[in-house]
Amino acid sequence: MSKIEVSDELRAMARVSKAWPYEEARKLIKRYPDGESGAPILFETGYGPSGLPHIGTFNEVQRTTMVRHAYEEMTGAATRLIAFSDDMDGLRKVPDNVPNQGLLAAHIGKPLTQVPDPFGKYESFAHHNNAMLRAFLDRYGFEYEFMSSTEMYRGGQFDEALKGVLRHYQAIMDIMLPTLREERRKTYSPVLPVSRKTGVVLQVPIEVVDAEAGTVRFEDHGDIVEQSILSGGAKLQWKVDWAMRWVALGVDYEMAGKDLIDSVIQSSKIARALGGRPPEGFNYEMFLDEKGEKISKSKGNGLSIEQWLTYGTEESLAFYIYREPKAAKQLHIGVIPRAVDEYEQFRASYAAQPVDKQLGNPVHHIHGGQVPQDGLPVTFGLLLNLVGVMGRDATEAQVWAYLRNYVPDASPENHPRLAGLVRNALAYNRDFIAPTLKRRAPEHNEAMALRELDAQLGALSDDATAEDIQNIVYEIGKDPHYGFEQLRDWFKALYETLLGAEQGPRMGSFVALYGIENSRKLIAQALEMAEA
């Protein structure tokens, strides 16, 4: 359970802030206009343990945590967050990315907690994936309570809610049947009994025998069976299960992807039929790949958390997730550098902002209001340009040697965050930049401008700053003698002839970082290409 203390000024500002976590939190204030519900406000996120945690899992928990913290700031009320694992679900198919697939194939249809762990480490496949989920959430510092569907069903905690499903069985059927294809209607049942013969979660029609006793009748491999659905004797269909869980646990807030809009609508109707109240929440947009197509695990066109953290920072991922949750966004390797630098820009500006601006700053929500004050002496973009010039085989030690040209005390010990970013930059350069870089020969007017730049760099004193160098670059680009229609044409020429890229950094900062003599060597190489 969580509860925080904030200043009266911050609380007042939060109540009118237009940042989306506060807008979502206001839904909960309207839900209980007279104050708290008598219990901590309950947030929930769901996880299907038929596969390993992925970026969508991080996305949902991160955004829910942001709304949770916003509500706490606005009200001072206590909250809880449940990470619910739907581990009593039947195994529908064998995932492609696990070993010992034949072992799993023999257990199709059984609850995931009854399927052997193909990795041979845990009691079941679900136990393995649940452990991965918890380790994943713990790694990122989320505060949550883990809850297992199997434990809740078998432990009897859902028994009263299951009796409610049987009492309102026809009302639930009336909600669900119109949403199904004609063929599916013939066999649909909200309740999926677990076969005592095979242990499989059965997809068969049932007849309610005694709602108060929890007894139903169904056919199991040719035999007509009467069986209690209580204490693990059955599992509910997805949409009914979701609604039952909301009612049984008293969930106040749960968000879901746009692909689950219909599920939210039907589950909300079922929750009301059960005498409960569906939670507040919203449907976020799905991520797209670089071609603008929906990310699909079966297509393999997604981006994993491990990939993001190889090339960018954890905070930059949270930043990317924070921005515009109701807009479709591309999620691919190419968005990482900009996300890293934009996060750092917002972080650097936070301390000097008035409170109302801080509450609209993404870093306030990423860090739960406790935004670290340490900044970075260089941008990620500048690092990428540096290692791009250094080549695919650049080492950390070489990068730090260059950094000392720009940052006098530069070392991994003095700048641990920068040390992580150096590793990210080297990996990104190795895998994505170095293979694409290609310097072109400068045109006649560009070569003249480069000669002038070289001469002026050679005349600079040892204490020249990045700003001094930048001023020289500007003046050359603005000089009509060199024929640049716009200043950006000069910058583009510098990037393409010296760095081999279409875009680049402030050249003053780059030259200061790379070193004047090294930068003059780049100019000499470009001029040699022009003369060849």
List strands and helices in order, with pairings.
Layout lengths: L7 H7 L5 H12 L9 E7 L7 H21 L3 E7 L15 H5 L19 H15 L5 E4 H6 L4 H9 L1 H8 L5 H4 L5 E3 L13 E4 L4 E6 L2 E6 L5 E3 L1 H12 L6 E2 L3 H13 L9 E2 L2 E2 L16 H7 L2 H9 L6 E2 L5 H15 L4 H6 L1 H5 L13 H11 L5 H11 L9 H18 L10 H15 L7 H13 L8 H13 L7 H8 L1 H16 L1
Parallel strand pairs: 1-2, 2-3, 9-10, 11-12
Antiparallel strand pairs: 4-8, 5-6, 6-7
Structural summary, described in words:
The protein has 532 residues and is mostly helical. The protein has four domains: 8-180 and 236-284, HUPs (Rossmann fold), CATH 3.40.50.620; 287-366, no CATH class; 380-433, no CATH class; 444-531, Arc Repressor Mutant, subunit A. It is built from 24 helices and twelve strands. Helix 1 (8-14) crosses helix 3. It is elongated, with a radius of gyration of 29 Å. 40% of the residues are buried.
